[in-house]
């Protein structure tokens, strides 16, 4: 390590101590001078001590020097903590843990990645400084949402990396890693949508719910709002606007899925899906403007579970079945069979057939066929939501939804014809 880099590393070590020391000093600013055991100067010295220990370890090629310094610091912190515990009933160890972190990051700044050490030091200071907000956020969560966070971490960070990335089963169409990745992706979309609705609040009305619920399941939202429309007929325009908006959000959701699994298909579907989505959005906004004339806002439908692990597993099984059947249809019935199967699959779920066709487009299926199949599935799913609004919500709601989704279907069909030409 050259002289300039050595000085830079020591400067970063000192800066880490300054950052954390400022936060801790401000946090304990109301304590009397003799009662503050670790303040700005202490943390600056701890950061420099870590940097010096790292420099000595580099020159002597002995990492044990850093370990000895850490042991000495630990002994001093234990003594300091014992004295503080005698004076007060405070049992927190946050400041002491931060001191250990500053020492180690100071050593890292000289011995290893200087920028990583600096970034980590900023992170430590932020964690300490945002204590009230972190605690408020923790108290804001309910048990179901905490479980959802843990479940999402389990399926994404633990299970996913362990799965094989090679094909299995008939025609080797099942790739466990890819199938589970889609389960994680769908779960994450629902997770984001759930918390977006909670953060924005119910006062923003059913329309905002439609926007974010469309990221997870526009069909489920259509069913819920159609039921509510029979109980609260005064808000037909608001309910219809939310249903149309949720259905319109399905199209950008499909684009996001394709961007993850098969970006090469995006250019063909980007224009048609943007046109379809904008059509539905404009009509839903017009209905919302009319719905604002209602005397009061209805209650927002109950929020769905942030992560439904059982539903995610069912989706994985459905996706595996769709992949297998789609490959079989392609082999024995050609492109026409793929289109027919896309329409049938779209009646229940767009994501599964989208992911299946996107994966098949990597080799066994022509990209043009995959694009057309995805568009057919999306339009078929739109027909289903139109039917639900009529059957479950009644004629009044159905007519309003038909205006919006009818426009979506017409624009989508026109885009499909252009793809064929």
Tell me the layout of helices and strands:
Layout: H1 3-27, H2 40-60, H3 64-87, H4 94-111, H5 114-129, H6 131-140, H7 143-159, H8 176-200, H9 205-216, H10 218-231, H11 236-261, H12 266-291, H13 309-346, H14 350-360, H15 367-393, H16 395-420
- Overall mean confidence score, pLDDT: 76
Number of helices: 16
How can the largest sheet be summarized? Answer: none
SSE topology string = HHHHHHHHHHHHHHHH
Coarse structural class: mainly alpha
Helix coverage percent: over 70%
Shape: elongated
How many discrete structural domains? 2
Give the total of beta strands: 0
Q: What percent of residues are in strands?
A: under 5%
Distance between the termini: 65 Å
Written account of the structure:
There is one protein chain. The chain folds into two domains: 3-136, no CATH class; 141-420, no CATH class. It is built from 16 helices and no strands. The protein has helices at 3-27, 40-60, 64-87, 94-111, 114-129, 131-140, 143-159, 176-200, 205-216, 218-231, 236-261, 266-291, 309-346, 350-360, 367-393, 395-420.
Brief characterization of the structure:
InterPro entries: DUF4010, MgtC_SapB_SrpB_YhiD_N. With 421 residues, the chain is mainly α. The protein contains 16 helices and no strands.
What attributes does this structure have?
421 residues; mainly alpha; 2 domains; 16 helices; 0% strand; elongated
């Amino acid at each position: 390590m050259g002289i300039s880099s050595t000085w830079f590393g020591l400067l970063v070590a000192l800066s880490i101590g300054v950052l954390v020391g400022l936060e801790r000093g401000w946090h304990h600013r109301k304590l009397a001078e003799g009662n503050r055991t670790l303040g700005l100067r202490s943390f600056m010295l701890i950061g420099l001590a870590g940097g010096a220990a790292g420099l000595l370890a580099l020159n002597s090629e002995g990492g044990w020097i850093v370990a000895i310094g850490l042991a000495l610091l630990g002994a001093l912190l234990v003594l300091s903590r014992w004295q503080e515990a005698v004076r007060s009933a405070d049992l927190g160890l946050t400041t002491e843990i931060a001191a250990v972190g500053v020492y180690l990051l100071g050593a890292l700044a000289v011995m290893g990645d200087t920028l990583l050490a600096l970034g980590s030091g900023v992170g430590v200071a932020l964690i300490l400084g945002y204590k009230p907000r972190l605690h408020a956020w923790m108290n804001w969560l309910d048990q179901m949402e905490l479980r959802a966070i843990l479940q999402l971490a389990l399926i994404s960070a633990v299970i996913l990396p362990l799965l094989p990335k090679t094909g299995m089963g008939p025609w080797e169409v099942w790739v466990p890693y890819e199938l589970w990745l889609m389960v994680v992706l769908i779960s994450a979309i629902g997770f984001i949508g759930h918390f977006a609705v909670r953060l924005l609040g119910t006062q923003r009305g059913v329309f905002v719910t439609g926007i974010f619920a469309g990221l997870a399941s526009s069909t489920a939202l259509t069913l819920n709002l159609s039921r509510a429309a029979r109980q609260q007929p005064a808000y037909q325009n608001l309910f219809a606007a939310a249903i149309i908006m949720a259905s319109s959000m399905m199209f950008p959701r499909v684009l996001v899925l394709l961007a993850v699994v098969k970006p090469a298909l995006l250019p063909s579907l980007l224009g048609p899906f943007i046109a379809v989505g904008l059509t539905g959005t404009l009509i839903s906004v017009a209905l919302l403007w009319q719905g604002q004339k209602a005397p009061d806002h209805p209650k927002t439908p109950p929020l769905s579970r942030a992560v439904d692990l059982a539903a995610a597993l069912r989706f994985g099984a459905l996706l595996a079945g769709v992949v297998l059947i789609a490959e079989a249809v392609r082999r024995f019935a050609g492109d026409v069979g793929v289109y027919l199967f896309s329409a049938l699959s779209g009646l229940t779920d767009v994501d599964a057939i989208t992911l299946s066709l996107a994966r098949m487009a990597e080799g066994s299926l022509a990209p043009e066929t995959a694009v057309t199949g995805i568009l057919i599935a999306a339009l078929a799913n739109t027909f289903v939501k139109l039917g639900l609004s009529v059957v479950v919500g009644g004629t009044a709601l159905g007519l309003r939804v038909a205006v919006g989704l009818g426009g979506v279907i017409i624009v989508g069909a026109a885009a499909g014809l252009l793809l064929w030409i």
